[in-house]
Write a structure and sequence with these properties.
Strand content: 25-35%
Shape: globular
CATH topology: Aminopeptidase
CATH superfamily: Gcn5-related N-acetyltransferase (GNAT)
Distance between the termini: 31 Å
Helix content: 25-40%
Strand order of the largest sheet: 1-2-3-4-5-7-6
Order of helices and strands: EHHHEEEHEHEE
Structural class: alpha+beta
């Protein structure tokens, strides 16, 4: 049986798992190109809320069998367009969870009336690029990063 992914709004409870991942998963930290910093659950929750307000965003914990394994966000929301970003704990990579999460968020975005989804991907994040290609997204290499655009409506 395939493991099922669900999304849950980021809250203080799942912020404990997310803070632990972003503080201690060295492979994820390197992939995100951030510095290793210990973050408390409260700090993670507060920072996420501030980021959501600043970027007109909604962030969701990615849940696998009642375990929080990452986060996905719908940000920079305008009338018909929004941006998606996702990260998952490295021990859960290459298992299809990012694809499942993205599909769930795309369905939510459609229900909210969005017609175009954008993303930016670093050149070395080949797995994310594969997912967007499977979805039929337009991919533009601007020389620094891949700019993604997917029509959903």
């Amino acid at each position: 049986m395939e493991n099922t992914i669900s999304l849950c709004e980021v809250n203080l409870k799942n912020s404990a798992n997310l803070a632990d991942m972003i503080s201690n998963d060295d492979v994820l930290i390197k992939a995100l190109k951030t510095k290793k910093t210990l973050v408390s659950p409260q700090e993670f929750f507060d920072t996420t809320n501030e980021w959501q307000l600043k970027n007109n965003a909604n962030s969701y914990a990615i849940i696998l069998d009642q375990e929080c394994i990452g986060m996905i966000s719908l940000s920079h929301q305008h009338t018909k367009t929004a941006r998606i970003g996702v990260w998952i704990a490295s021990k859960h990579w290459d298992k299809g969870y990012a694809t499942q999460s993205l599909n769930l968020l795309l369905e939510l975005a459609k229900q909210q009336g969005f017609t175009t989804i954008n993303a930016t991907i670093e050149h070395d994040v080949v797995a994310s690029l594969r997912i967007w290609k499977k979805l039929g997204a337009e991919i533009i290499d601007d020389g620094k990063k891949y700019q993604i655009e997917l029509k959903i409506g």
